[in-house]
Amino acid sequence: MINFEIHKTSSQCRARAGTLTTPRGDIETPIFMPVGTAGTVKGVTPENLKDCGAQIILGNTYHLYLRPGMDVINRFSGLHGFMNWDRPILTDSGGFQIFSLAKISKTTEKGFDFQSHIDGTRHVITPEDAVDIQTTLDADIIMCLDSCIPYPADEETARKALELTTRWAVRCRDQWVRATDKKNALFGIVQGGMFPHLRRQSAEELMALDFPGYALGGLSVGEPKNLMMEIADTSLPLLPEEKPKYIMGVGTPEDLVELVSLGADMFDCVMPTRNARNGQLFTSRGKINISNAAFKQDTRPADPECGCYTCRHYSGAYLHHLYRSRELLSYQLNTIHNLHYYLHLMRTMRTAIIEDTFSDFKAQFYRKNNSNGSGG
């Protein structure tokens, strides 16, 4: 099981600093979780991740179930041994990936009936299966199977999806108790589309099941940024204050700052790793594209204020050269930098919350990034 303790809540907003205690280590919140979809955070080693300050990473049920498969994972007694990572892991249930990646996917009361995007084979994953797969992965935090919907979606579609999500959550919880005796932590996922009253209904139904933590799903799926923030602003206060609150699949550094100020504790997103492979770096002065000619002869680090391995050892000119040459080292060094940036941003926010200077931090963040706040 896990334990969550809140140490400080900002007097200036809803931002809070806490500690999430797991059998494999403590996680200081707010926290960003690098995405290791297929048992690897693309481009970096577990040692790189630790050097960047990663306390927990994310794995994906759908991808790992299809490849390498649970027979392989079982030989290593779980994902930790398979990928040589000894810190906590959160696995998502795979619902979004089935919805978005499977060639043919059918949602029924039983679960998801889908065709693999890899080889076309047909599979069925029920809520019970989702729990069992994540238990085989031996994740420290596992997620309920939920019903995902596209944006935009009408109210009736959103209502049916949230009601199915609740019924599946009951089955996930029953299987979790039966199969694991609550050995790990199971989080419920709030759905409801972009309708605040449906979000409230979903939150209330899930809270009645008393999960160890709660997530907001169905955000950052194409909706306008101000709408995402509005839904988060109205939904986060609905969740129990004593439980961790996780925003799934979000987002930009600005998103993280705003959502922390609204009371969110946990985040994941492919942005720092994906953008790194496309030559975009997040820096103390905003985003830069290392492919730009301005970096061709730049002897300084890409971000002179950054203390990551990449910026301590390599120049902007070298990173520019690697990227333009499509050298594999480019992806590793860029990813190390971006993950360090995200994790350092979370640590900086945590310090500002504890020192009760979050408003000052936020103003300075936007001043340095030449951007404007989008809410919160």
Main traits of this protein?
15 helices; alpha/beta; three-stranded antiparallel β-sheet; globular; single chain; 376 residues
Largest sheet: 8 strands, parallel
How much helical structure, as a percent, in the residues?
40-55%
Beta percentage is 15-25%
For CATH, the homologous superfamily of the largest domain is named as Queuine tRNA-ribosyltransferase-like
Low-confidence stretches: 371-376
Shape: globular
- What is the strand tally? 16
Briefly, what CATH class of the largest domain? Alpha Beta
Average pLDDT taken over every residue: 96
Radius of gyration: 20 Å
> How many domains comprise the coordinates?
2
Going by helix content, strand content and strand pairing, the class is: alpha/beta
CATH topology of the largest domain: TIM Barrel
**Second-tier CATH architecture of the largest domain:** Alpha-Beta Barrel
Number of helices: 15
Please give the order of strands in the largest beta sheet.
4-14-13-12-11-10-6-5
Ends: how far apart?
Answer: 32 Å
